[in-house]
Amino acid sequence: MKKDVKIFLNHILESIELIEEYIKDKTEDDFFTSKFLQDAVIRRLEIIGEAIKNLPIEFRENITTSHGKNLLG
């Protein structure tokens, strides 16, 4: 695996872990009433999206859901 791919995958994993930490023990109402929390989660989703866009196409084509569908369309 190329170093760049590892970097992008690490960005994705780190962002997922941070989102989990941000929303742990939070309710839906907590989320929608906290602009700070919304901004933090949205920023991490942006980072995930950018990292995915930077993965090589042949790598992205092999990312599937648990149902076998291509996750990225």
UniProtKB/TrEMBL annotation:
Cellular component GO terms, alphabetical: toxin-antitoxin complex
Record GO terms (molecular function): hydrolase activity; nucleotide binding; RNA nuclease activity
Keyword Zinc part of the UniProt annotation: no
Classification via InterPro entries: HepT-like (IPR008201), HepT_RNase_toxin (IPR051813)
Any Pfam family matching the protein: HepT-like
Keywords (A to Z) from UniProt: Hydrolase, Nuclease, Nucleotide-binding, Phosphoprotein, Toxin-antitoxin system
UniProt-recorded name of the protein: Uncharacterized protein
Organism per entry: Methanocaldococcus vulcanius (strain ATCC 700851 / DSM 12094 / M7)
